[in-house]
Amino acid sequence: MRITSAKFIKSAVQLDDCPQGEFPEFAFIGRSNVGKSSLINLLTNKDGLARVSKTPGRTREINFFKINEAWSLVDLPGYGYAKVSKNLREQFNEFVSDYLVNRENLLGTFVLIDSRHTPQKIDLQFLQWLVEHNLPFALVFTKCDKTKAGALQKHIDLFKTAMKEWSDGDPIIFTSSAAKRLGYKEIKAFIEQAMEAS
Ligand code: GDP
Hints:
Helices cover 34% and strands 22% of the residues. By secondary structure, it is α/β, with parallel strands linked by helices. It has one domain (6-197): Rossmann fold, CATH 3.40.50. It has a seven-stranded mixed sheet with strand order 1-3-4-2-5-6-7, sandwiched between helices. The longest helix has 17 residues, at 86-102. The chain starts with 5 loop residues before the first strand and ends with a helix. 31% of the residues are buried. Guanosine-5'-diphosphate is lined by residues 30, 32-38, 78, 142-143, 145-146, 177-179.
C-alpha cells in the first residue's frame, strides 16, 4: 500500500465525539515515549503528522487521521503516565476502553512495546485486557535499532511466555525502528490484508 494522503481529522475526548465510523480503522497505543508518534509518522511518511497528540494537556485525547481517503489511523493516548492521579488515569482508561470495546469499525490495535525492556506489568495488563475482551491486536516492538538482536529475541520470547498464561497461540509480532526506517512496510501490508479480509 502506498500512502498518498494522510491528514488529521479531529481529536475526541469521549466516544460521542469520535468521527462517524464509516472507514475501517486501526489504532495505535503504548506507554508514553514508546515511539508511537515516530512510528505513525514513518508509516504515513509524513513528518509531524502525529505531533498533535504531543501538545501539552492533550494527552487524554484520541486523534483521528484519514489515510488515502480509505481508512482511519487512530492515535490513542499513551498509557502508564506515572504522574497522573489515579482518578485521572481511570478516567482516561475509561475513554480508551470505551472506544476499544464499542468502536464498530475498529479492525485492529497495534500495541507498541519498547524493545529495549523486559515485559512491563502495565503492557501485560493491557494485553490481557484486550484478550479478555476478544479484541484483535498485534504487537510492535519499537526502537529496534537500540536493541541487540539477542536481547530483542529474548524480550519477544518473554512476552510470548507471559502471554501464554491467558492467551492461546502466539501473538502477531512486528519489529520496527523509526530511526532506521524499518518495519513499516510489513505493518502497512498487514493493514491492507486486514482491510481486504474484512
Ligand atoms: P511517543 O511518546 O510514544 O509518541 O514517542 P515519540 O515518537 O515521541 O518518541 C519518543 C522518543 O523516542 C523520541 O526522543 C524519539 O526520537 C525516540 N524514538 C522514537 N522511535 C525511535 C526509534 O525507532 N529509534 C530510536 N533510537 N529512537 C526512537
